[in-house]
Amino acid sequence: MIVILKKDVQGTGKAGEVVKVNDGFARNMLIPRGLALEATEGNVRSLEKQKALQEKKAAEAKAQAEKLAEELKTKTLVIKAKAGEGGRLFGAITGKDISEAFKSQLGMDFDKKKIELESPIKTLGTYTVDLRVYPEIKGSIKVEVEAE
């Protein structure tokens, strides 16, 4: 019997795949548990429409991410911190601090895990910080660290 998997089934396939399985396996396990549908013409067409919709949404999200990456290149975040002699900070500026600056200065929620700092910022100055805007799209933003 040919079925369309609704969810991942170990040893059989991943969700959205059309696979051939034994009749008993399909009738007694996959279909009653809601793991698969019989692969009729209507179900196959429905699956193709869903895949097309998902691809369209992914393309739109990627386009928005590219636009955001370009927009962020022109922005600058200003972070004030206590500093001692020679411009050394008391403490350090981390991804969390940059994330909070995003929220307060630009009104954007940006996950601290998507901010790529090689090491925490420990001196005053201007830095370019890399950001993961989308899985394969990277952006950058300037961060100015000033004395409080």
Structural commentary:
With 148 residues, the protein is an alpha+beta fold. It has helices at 23-30, 41-73, 95-106; strands at residues 2-5, 18-20, 36-38, 76-81, 88-93, 115-116, 121-123, 125-134, 137-147. The strands form 3 sheets. It has a 4-stranded mixed sheet. A 3-stranded antiparallel sheet has the order 2-1-3, with helices on one face. The N and C termini lie far apart (71 Å).
Strand order of the largest sheet: 4-9-8-6
Strand content: 25-35%
Structural class: alpha+beta
* Number of separate helices: 3
Mean pLDDT: 93
Main sheet attributes: strand count, strand direction, barrel closure = 4 strands, mixed
Shape: elongated
- Which assembly state applies to the chains in this document? single chain
Given as residue ranges, the uncertain stretches (5+ residues, pLDDT < 50) are none
What characteristics describe this protein?
148 residues, alpha+beta, 3-stranded antiparallel sheet, 3 helices, 9 strands
List the helices and strands and how they pair.
Blueprint: E1 2-5, E2 18-20, H1 23-30, E3 36-38, H2 41-73, E4 76-81, E5 88-93, H3 95-106, E6 115-116, E7 121-123, E8 125-134, E9 137-147
Parallel strand pairs: 4-9
Antiparallel strand pairs: 1-2, 1-3, 5-7, 6-8, 8-9
Short description:
By secondary structure, the chain is an alpha+beta fold. It is 36% helix and 32% strand.
